[in-house]
Amino acid sequence: MEFETESLEIDTTSDNNAEWKELISVKLQTATRFEIHCWKEERKEIQMALQYGKIKECDWEYGTVIAGAVTKEFIGYLLSLPKPSDTEIYNKMTPFFSIFLDNGFSSAHYGTELYQVSGETPSR
């Protein structure tokens, strides 16, 4: 089996995260589970994510993974987050390093890289 990955383009130089919110709001509608990946030193962000999920055991030495259900409350929370102000390294769209949804959507590098894994295609 093969999977096709599509990169979804947004303006990563924008001074707001409205375009990111618009795109993820559509993807959240078909998702049932999420994973948020944070670096271990991102204590505030880990606590934010723990409001909606639980720590998932994994072997990522430098980070923490929080997993949970995509609920109306989680969607509302995620879409209410302001654009982070610490944008020196990345022009962050979200405070979370990575967000993965069980429908194949991912928001990586603080929302600056968005991907959608498409359904399976038969191997040849």
Fold and architecture overview:
The protein has 124 residues and is an alpha+beta fold. The chain is 22% helix and 33% strand. The protein has three helices and seven strands. It has helices at 18-28, 43-49, 72-80, and strands at 2-8, 33-39, 54-56, 63-69, 98-101, 105-108, 113-121. It has a seven-stranded antiparallel β-sheet, with helices on one face. β5 and β6 (105-108) form a beta hairpin. It is globular. The mean pLDDT is 92.
Average pLDDT figure: 92
Strands in their spatial order, largest beta sheet: 1-7-6-5-2-4-3
Query: Judging from the principal axes of the Cα atoms, what is the shape?
Result: globular
Q: Give the number of DSSP strands.
A: 7
Short description, anyone?
With 124 residues, the protein is α+β, with helices and mostly antiparallel strands.
Task: From the structure above, extract its key features.
3 helices; globular; 7 strands; seven-stranded antiparallel sheet
Helix-strand blueprint:
Blueprint: E1 2-8, H1 18-28, E2 33-39, H2 43-49, E3 54-56, E4 63-69, H3 72-80, E5 98-101, E6 105-108, E7 113-121
Antiparallel strand pairs: 1-7, 2-4, 2-5, 3-4, 5-6, 6-7
